[in-house]
Amino acid sequence: MASTILEMRDITKTFPGVKALSNVNLNVEEGEIHAIVGENGAGKSTLMKVLSGVYPYGSYDGKIVYRGEECRFAGIHDSERKGIVIIHQELALVPMLSITENIFLGNEHASHGVIDWNANRRRTSELLHKVGLSEDSNTLITNIGVGKQQLVEIAKALSKEVQLLILDEPTASLSEKDSQALLDLLVEFKKQGMTSILISHKLNEISRVADRVTVIRDGQTIETMARGDMSEDRIITSMVGRSLEDRYPPRDPKIGDVVFEVKNWSVYHPLHSERQVIKGIDLNVRKGEVVGIAGLMGAGRTEFAMSLFGRSYGRNITGEVLLNGKPVNLSSVGRAVDQGVAYVTEDRKTYGLNLIDHIKHNISLANMGGVSSRRGVINDLRELDVANDYRKATNIRASSVYQVTGNLSGGNQQKVVLSKWLFANPEVLILDEPTRGIDVGAKYEIYTIIARLAAEGKAIIVISSEMPELLGISDRIYVMNEGRMVGEMAASDASQEKIMRAIIRGEKAS
Ligand code: ADP
Ligand code: MG
Predict the structure, then answer these.
(1) Range of the domain at 30
(2) Which of 99, 368, 416, 502 has the fewest CB atoms within 10 Å, measured from its CB?
(3) Which of 14, 46, 87 to mutate to test the pocket of ligand 1 (most atoms within 8 A of CB)?
(4) Average pLDDT in the chain
């Protein structure tokens, strides 16, 4: 019979203006891998910071019982003394120090007040061995990748005699392979009797390693499921409070004439001039229509979109673009925007947003005229009104429009990008992977925005690698492969199998 190692009872934690946790309960059994899932902002990290003493006793309400004993941690040293070690979402290693120095930072082995670096290095090598790293202990952190850095963090936790290991979204920035290695390690530690709490919103990872999962939504515990009861459907439903069938908002498309048309579009590689990247593409989009472009990674979809939008990719571009039946010149980004064509990139961080600026400025960025007087002076109050309107309309979760966009979650950043283009009011909107890296609930909100844009009569192109998403939101789907259009179908007629078949047929033909 498993015994309870940790019990968090009725935990409530408030920040100025935000109730991050209200009466959260968590029970962890000795020796299990307990997953905590929830959308961004659900309160997962806050709960773990309460547990580890980052938020000390007195700054929250409720009770923490560890191994039968009530804990009142004043700081992380108190929790670490009990063997509770947390690895935060943001890695905390010092880049210019060695692995050894990072592991023993603050708790160096010392005898008579002198740090024994030889002993520390020896101990480091043992720890690195345990986490499967063959790096030299003198290697600087800056010289190893994030996957290995994460393992160093774990080695550091082991150096503290960890009994309950907490990993806050450890695989968020890791490659598939590094994530696998990390999860394998967790399973290995479990065999040795360690208990761990794993925060993740990657459901495949959870179903692979977790014994139980607790779902948190809006600062509340929704439920804890045992392994046998875990299904992706049930977890998603708990996370977002909505069932899988309703993953896409209902639409009643009113589709008009062709607004945007591309004819025989060809593009060559910017560096290898003999390589044709886009091969004679034809495409059209109607007013009020959502057109999806499906394809495998590397099919050329982003290159196609970027070459259209201000020729920001490729050379020797040939072909024609018509807007409302008339040829248009989109040869620079400025011209494209002036003509009413917008492109929202998959890489929000680099292209879509000014991360160090606040929400208000970012929203008016593509339409300064809309917040300026006739003489070009920015009207602050007007800008503020606009920002507040869009914040409300797109449900951007932030303390105010003066919050810096870099501090928002991915989903909320994407809503700011979309608000920016909503306000610029383009006729044609190209969305490249609009929901990549965004959690389930925020995805739904993005789909709602897309549906509303279409209802307003915009012509929308969505590039996505998630086929269910394309099937869920598009009216018509094009299939691209190796720079060519290899298929076109009404969404009502399309399926994942049909799309895949088009791709494979295209490969055979070329
Ligand atoms: P998760 O880890 O599940 O994504 P968090 O625990 O980080 O969520 O955040 C929960 C809520 O508390 C969010 O609304 C977040 O904005 C808020 N929050 C978290 N930390 C702070 C803080 N230091 N100050 C103010 N609000 C915070
Ligand atoms: Mg978090």
Answers:
(1) 4-240
(2) 368
(3) 46
(4) 89
Q: Are residues 269 and 284 in the same domain?
A: yes
For residue 15 and ligand 1, the question of a CB distance below 6 A is answered with yes
pTM of the model: 0.63
pLDDT at 304 over 70: yes
Q: Is 45 in the pocket of ligand 1 (CB under 6 A)?
A: yes
Number of domains observed in the structure of the chain? 3
Residue appearing with tokens 């996505």: 464
345 domain-assigned: no
Q: Which of 394, 425, 456 is the last residue of a domain?
A: 425
Is the CB of 42 within 6 Å of ligand 1? Answer: yes
Q: What is the pLDDT of residue 125?
A: 94
SS3 138: coil
The residue that leads in pLDDT, 44 or 409, is 44
Identify residue 198 by its one-letter amino acid code.
Answer: L
Percent with pLDDT over 90 in the chain: 57
The confidence band for 353, taking pLDDT boundaries of 50, 70 and 90, is confident
Of 11, 15, 37, the residue with max ligand 1 atoms within 8 A of its CB, to mutate for a pocket test, comes to: 15
In degrees, to the nearest 5, what angle opens at C-alpha 473 toward C-alphas 216 and 427? Answer: 115
